[in-house]
Structure to design on (809 residues):
């Protein structure tokens, strides 16, 4: 493998790994804040136990999200220095804003929250977790705006003499509809993933009869979160699909394995492509659904891969503009499939709980354990889809991925760092997972009130 | 002042903040096993960092992000050129952060021992490597201008390990160890405090020797502009004040002066560069400076608004955190120090 393929693999590994932890961080921060608010308002002990228990899970997960985020920040310069030179004038700004506005907020107030139980007045301590959670939300916004520039560059001009793109309108970069639709797609997904974690853990506690007082509200909060966020995901997903068809028609065509342009195009349930990837051999589909999804009309024309390839050859010069179709096609379906499974489970839980009943069948228990993993898998496939089906572009229409790689870094160096990072990520994942499982198995612990409960003779929290 | 110079200044401020804050984090991490002999002591030491280490590290992320935004050529050339040292720093920061968060989850000696070793090594490596990296930047590295006009690093990993750079690494290591010791002396009670004061004294003297050698070398062969020398002299004077305060048992002043020394050292080093940001050792026209490395005026202007509004707010709430956690920590305050929150039997 050459430096380019290795750098691409490294970026994919780091980003997908980082994003396993990110959605849980964003959603759980708010859900924990919700429990603490319930405790603050009602003073009921069960909500304090829930806050501390889910707070622990949140923090175990947060640690890995933070440290892998550091690599995210620097890998553009390390492996993608040509890309960094080309877009730095634009792309650097949201990253710097993310640091100043979001990272400082989340890290500082999370520190205050973790160690502040006996140091801060109750109200201020509650505000800390809300501010930390807000920090994670802002962080997502800026990084999605930056990513959206790669999907659909706006607010720039080309400076040919310096060979780079230059910012002309920061407001457009931050508020273009690609960025907004991505934000309103990713954030509900983060809540979906966290809802699944809370519901799954609640279900397990219930099964093991550990602290039913905590288990019930956790399940309910989790299930409601899943359903509400799923609806938002559907709406924003539908909107995103239309934005995508308009801005990156090749991506939509690849997602559907649609080789030739069609009106009343079907949504493919199964497409098997030929070996050379230029046409479909076998196809089953739902009539007209794809046209509806991408154009808003059942008889709208959806462009196919082969036609777009010809257009791009004429527009950008002869090259291959077709992404890996099977990857786009299957990752798109797995994204929807895993999300949908989480929704079905959540609806079942709510149905069984409607009159204070408890879902306790054996089948359900197994499903509950699988539940937290479903949205995470869906999200990972979503990112794999949206990034891989943009190829060969790193910035759509402006720079190809192969032109963005660092020229001063040899394949050996990239291979070495990729191997070490991957091994490290693997080890940390095992440790993290072990700690999560152990925490869940112990269940919520009798709560020490914390807030000025003692005269400082003992610390409520110590590393 | 042009916006380019203003952004050079902002970058200096961010590195100053980073080295003052994570500098003592590194020092505390390196000294963990030396100053703290039992579990209660180790946990007391780590708890001094607990609420603040992550916020301290954000200074690095913001320095990186600001460099990307304001001087993309600098960001791209620096991080692709200093590839392996930066990689080692990143691996260290990953291991370090996770170690802080996970080490006290279980009480088992083996579990904790491994994380303790991880903390020591992952604090040591960046403390040295940042010095090596900055000394290389000051000294100039082989940068070449390609036919496309792009300036790239043309050396290898071992170019970066030259004697001047290694001296830089030793200097930052000793400085951070002393700075960490002064911090611990200020933040703890009992045995840890005594040991930290004693270590601060020895490490402080060693730092003085290393820093004088490093500044001397810099003045003799790299840059001897009058005001750079003046800044370095200010750093040295603050260091002497820190040593004096440590000797007299004035822990707050010792820490304050070591923070000021760190600040002036960083300022002096950047002053040797200005207006360059990465001088080339091969030819002057392959040097990166605040103009040929910079973003457009528009981007700098946008970022100026953002920085001017947000930086004071950040400083206020981060400073407030230090105020909230200002109390000294005593190992006696750690309840059941030998067990972890996830041990089944307490």
């Amino acid at each position: 493998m050459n430096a380019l393929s290795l750098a691409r693999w490294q970026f994919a590994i780091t980003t997908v790994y980082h994003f396993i932890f990110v959605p849980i961080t964003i959603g759980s921060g708010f859900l924990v804040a919700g429990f603490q608010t319930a405790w603050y308002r009602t003073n009921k002990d069960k909500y304090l136990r829930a806050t501390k228990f889910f707070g622990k899970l949140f923090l175990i997960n947060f640690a890995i999200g933070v440290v892998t985020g550091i690599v995210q920040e620097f890998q553009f310069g390390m492996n993608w220095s040509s890309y960094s030179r080309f877009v730095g004038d634009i792309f650097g700004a949201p990253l710097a804003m993310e640091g100043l506005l979001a990272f400082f907020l989340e890290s500082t107030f999370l520190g205050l929250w973790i160690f502040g139980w006996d140091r801060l007045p109750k109200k201020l301590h509650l505000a800390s977790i809300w501010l930390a959670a807000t920090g994670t939300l802002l962080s997502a916004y800026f990084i999605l705006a930056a990513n959206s520039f790669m999907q659909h560059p706006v607010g720039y001009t080309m400076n040919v003499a310096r060979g780079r793109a230059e910012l002309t309108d920061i407001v457009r970069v931050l508020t273009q509809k690609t960025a907004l639709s991505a934000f309103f797609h990713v954030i509900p997904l983060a809540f979906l993933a966290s809802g699944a974690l809370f519901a799954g853990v609640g279900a397990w506690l219930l099964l093991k009869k550990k602290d039913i007082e905590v288990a019930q509200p956790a399940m309910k909060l989790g299930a409601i979160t899943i359903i509400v966020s799923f609806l938002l995901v559907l709406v924003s997903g539908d909107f995103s699909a239309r934005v995508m068809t308009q801005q990156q028609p090749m991506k939509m065509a690849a997602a559907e394995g649609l080789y030739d342009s069609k009106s009343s195009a079907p949504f493919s349930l199964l497409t098997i492509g030929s070996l050379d990837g230029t046409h479909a051999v076998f196809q089953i589909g739902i009539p007209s659904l794809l046209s509806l999804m991408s154009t808003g009309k059942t008889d709208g024309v959806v462009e196919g891969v082969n036609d777009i390839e010809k257009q791009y050859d004429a527009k950008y010069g002869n090259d291959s503009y077709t992404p890996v179709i099977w990857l786009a096609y299957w990752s798109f379906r797995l994204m929807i499939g895993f999300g949908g499974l989480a929704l079905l489970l959540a609806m079942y839980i709510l149905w069984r709980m409607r009159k204070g009943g408890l879902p306790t069948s054996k089948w359900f228990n197994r499903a509950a354990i699988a539940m937290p993993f479903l949205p995470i898998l869906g999200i990972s496939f979503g990112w794999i889809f949206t990034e891989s089906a943009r190829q060969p572009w790193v910035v759509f229409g402006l720079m190809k991925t192969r032109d963005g790689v660092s020229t001063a870094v040899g394949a050996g160096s990239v291979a070495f760092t990729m191997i070490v990072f991957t091994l490290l990520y693997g080890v940390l994942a095992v440790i993290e997972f072990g700690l999560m499982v152990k925490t869940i198995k112990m269940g919520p612990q009798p709560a020490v009130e914390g807030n000025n409960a003692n005269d400082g003779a003992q610390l409520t929290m110590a590393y | 002042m042009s916006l380019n110079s203003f952004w050079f200044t902002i970058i200096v401020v961010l590195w100053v903040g980073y080295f003052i804050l994570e500098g003592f984090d590194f020092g505390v991490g390196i000294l963990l096993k030396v100053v703290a002999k039992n579990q209660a002591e180790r946990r007391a030491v780590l708890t001094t960092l607990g609420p603040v280490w992550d916020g301290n590290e954000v200074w690095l992320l913001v320095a990186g992000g600001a460099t990307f935004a304001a001087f993309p050529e600098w960001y791209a050339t620096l991080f692709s050129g200093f590839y392996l040292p930066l990689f080692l720093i990143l691996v260290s920061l990953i291991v370090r952060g996770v170690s802080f968060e996970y080490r006290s989850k279980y009480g088992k000696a083996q579990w904790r021992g491994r994380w303790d070793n991880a903390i020591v090594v992952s604090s040591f490596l960046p403390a040295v490597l940042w010095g090596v990296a900055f000394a290389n930047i000051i000294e100039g590295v082989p940068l070449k201008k390609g036919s496309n006009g792009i300036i790239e690093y043309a050396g290898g990993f071992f170019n970066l390990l030259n004697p001047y750079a290694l001296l830089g690494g030793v200097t930052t290591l000793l400085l951070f160890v002393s700075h960490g010791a002064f911090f611990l002396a200020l933040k703890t009670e009992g045995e840890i405090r005594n040991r930290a004061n004693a270590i601060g004294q020895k490490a402080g003297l060693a730092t003085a020797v290393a820093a004088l050698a490093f500044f001397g070398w810099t003045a003799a062969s790299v840059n001897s502009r009058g005001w750079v020398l003046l800044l370095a002299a200010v750093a040295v004077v603050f260091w002497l004040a820190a040593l004096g305060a440590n000797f007299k048992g004035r822990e707050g002043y010792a820490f304050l002066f070591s923070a000021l020394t760190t600040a002036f050292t960083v300022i002096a080093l950047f002053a040797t560069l200005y207006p360059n940001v990465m001088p080339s050792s091969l030819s002057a026209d392959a040097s990166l400076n605040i103009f040929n490395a910079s973003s457009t005026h528009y981007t700098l202007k946008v970022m100026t608004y953002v920085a001017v509004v947000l930086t004071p707010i950040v400083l206020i709430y981060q400073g407030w955190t230090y105020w909230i956690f200002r109390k000294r920590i005593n190992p006696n305050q750690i309840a059941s120090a030998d067990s972890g929150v996830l041990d089944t039997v307490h």
